[in-house]
Design a protein that fits this description.
Chain lengths: 418, 418
């Protein structure tokens, strides 16, 4: 089964919007084993959209086309599909009623333009999911004697995702003769490279390949860590869940403590939840990360354990934190583990918290040196470590913060034994 | 002149990486008036890459292909181009020497693999820009009796941008017979919508269209504001600079004080520079924005005026700031302008700064209410304002911070008269 993706919109070609839809669709197709060999972007031009659809249909069994389903004259995807199918557009009163109701529920009159969205190629059906005014279309057609299909979905990512995740994937898998239940789980790790993980799991992956009921894929995700996605297939939900549980246990056993979470867990939520479980509170002092750590912790679930954070850019506030820690930090120690330790203990005292964290480092002419010191202060003392990172603001803040939180997870929270 | 873009890489189709290269290239082509009607993503498969190149060459005068120039067996773009040109790959000793030197300058031996990168299709030339080990290739060829060209650039965005911004654009414009000098300037605004700006500038745009030596384009850029890009064309650099200056003056006159900067200016850098000019220092207290404001200010040029920031998530630190401001804030005033005012004045006192800023707001079950209060405290008093924003963490932090900085620009800095 092969499925191509065509993204419609002149704004995509002009670079005014990055086409993230195709990538997301590609990920969904890959997860269920459907090949996608080409993805095309094309502008709002009827002849070129038709050319792109015909070419895609000549190479693949199915085409997902996103965009061009809006109410304006520029939105011509439905017209072009009707042309490619060799049929007329017909008015669908159920769709029209749905659109009219969306407007009236907001106390607004439906503009006449929006009736264009109730036009459907003769022989096509609409999708049940319809979060906006644009209906998704399932357009079956015979190409050179072979049954093929075009799915048309809106370009608005939220609407596209509902339709592709629902009707499109179900219909595609049915067409592929795949009536198995399929589900995924993501194991999140920090502290090993993609090739490192692949090596550790190599035998396991070989065995999965020969058995054929589950697959592993690695997704490098920068500061979010390296994800291992388990995808399992079975006759029903219960058997798939059992497979995922068994696989998760095996992956965890193989990878050890570099696994920090599953699915929606983040390093922040895991650390905050760990501290909450043992009733510990947190305070943060940041120099080189300049507020980045606080900005990641505050929206995360469990952030009530964070009593506060100080971005210690000025001399006075740093001196104050040193005094609270009852240590002296020489000018020559700026950016070192000595400073990080003083800041972590100082901010712990300032907020009367159980755990104090700090990042320290130097930068010249607005560029970080890349040498970063971090510290974890608790009532039993201060743990420090130094890292050498790329001389880049984003990398320095991201890696020092997540690295420091990972160290909290491995030390403070692991020691708590829960 | 038509130029297509082909992005090579199975990881792009699988959605492991979003193809931002094509969008960036599309933006560059649009800026100089070169049409790009199709952009294609294709995997690391020789037959399919060849099909994509041949199709693109049949429709367009030039093709920019990114990716697949690395040293491994998967990297086959150069092989496929040679096949499409109908020529052999030849060893380029100058490229080999350059790669060898890159390794030796880092004290490393060049792996034999990397010699693959010194293979160049016979008749192609390499690009002067070569920040990494992969050389960019200019591959002229005759297709159906017409002179066409394929440019091959690496998929690494930084390397791709140097080559496309340099050799590729120069060569494309020469081929298009366009020997004019072209340059752009971006006017950055905050506080009006795209349609609002378009309306204000409508007559001006009509006049530019009829004169033909400059164009305006709007780029909605979320929290970075709405950009107005002026592109001007002329016989030489001096005349283009004069055109840009004249256009900038007209746009500024039409838009008034919603213009906050030009080109690389950001709201942060403009506000920090304004405070630095008048010798004023800054302190920040954040509740609802949770460190986001500090994390934007700290890496910006001029951040030495920021004496420090407090993320006031816990009760104790908030009470302390209220006491420093010498005001009482009732529990029922949490998240209101009364709290924002107390936090702004409190943090100004805490850091002994000239200007204190604060964001305040409430959230339930980790979702912000969307009602945000911000305040600016100076020695002459406290200025506050309330906004109603979408109930979304990112939007609330982004818009409250940039909105507050914009208000500092319009009040504190404008009052300073410089």
């Amino acid at each position: 089964m092969k499925c191509e993706v065509v993204a419609v919109g002149t704004e995509l070609l002009l670079g005014q919007i990055v086409d993230t839809n195709s990538s997301w669709i590609g990920e969904q197709l890959a997860a269920v084993g459907i090949d996608s060999h080409f993805q095309t972007k094309v502008g709002d031009n009827p002849r070129r959209i038709a050319d792109a659809l015909r070419l895609a249909l000549s190479r693949s069994d199915a085409v997902i086309v996103s965009g061009g389903l809006g109410p304006t004259q520029d939105d011509i995807t439905r017209d072009v599909i009707a042309e490619v199918m060799g049929v007329e557009l017909v008015h669908d009163e159920m769709v029209a009623a749905k659109i009219r109701e969306m407007f009236s529920s907001r106390g607004r009159e439906m503009p006449a333009n929006n009736l264009r969205q109730a036009l459907v190629p003769d022989g096509a059906s609409t999708m049940d999911e319809q979060p906006g005014t644009a209906p998704g279309l399932v357009c079956p057609m015979v190409v050179d004697g072979v049954d093929k299909v075009v799915y048309a979905v809106p370009g608005v990512p939220m609407e596209m995702r509902q339709m592709v995740g629902g009707t499109v994937m179900t219909d595609l898998r049915r067409r592929a003769g795949d009536d198995a239940t399929i589900a995924s789980r993501v194991i999140r790790t920090w502290g090993n490279s993609e090739s490192g993980l692949a090596e550790v799991l190599a035998d396991h992956i070989d065995r999965l390949d020969s058995e054929g009921h589950a697959t592993l894929a690695f997704l490098a995700s920068g500061v979010e860590g390296l994800k291992v996605r388990i995808t399992a297939k079975g006759p029903d939900q219960a058997s798939v869940s059992r497979l995922l549980d068994a696989e998760e246990a095996e992956v965890r056993a193989a990878l050890g403590d570099i696994v920090f979470g599953v699915d929606d867990d983040t390093m922040e939520s895991v650390v905050l939840a760990g501290l909450a479980r043992s009733g510990q509170t947190l305070a943060v002092a940041e120099t080189i990360s300049g507020g980045y750590m606080a900005s990641r912790l505050t929206p995360a679930p469990g952030s009530h354990v964070l009593l506060g954070a100080v971005v210690a850019t000025g001399d006075a506030v740093r001196q104050r934190l040193y005094r609270l820690a009852e240590v002296e930090v020489a000018d020559s120690d700026r950016g070192s583990v000595a400073e990080a330790a003083a800041l972590a203990e100082g901010v712990r005292q300032m907020f009367d918290a159980d755990v104090g964290l700090a990042t320290a480092g130097l930068s010249d002419t607005r560029r970080p040196s890349g040498e970063v010191a971090v510290a974890i202060a608790t009532s039993s003392g201060v743990d420090t470590v130094e890292w050498r990172l790329p001389r880049d603001h984003d990398r320095v803040r991201q890696f020092s913060c997540i690295g420091l939180l990972d160290r909290v997870r491995r030390t403070v929270i692991a020691a708590d034994g829960r």
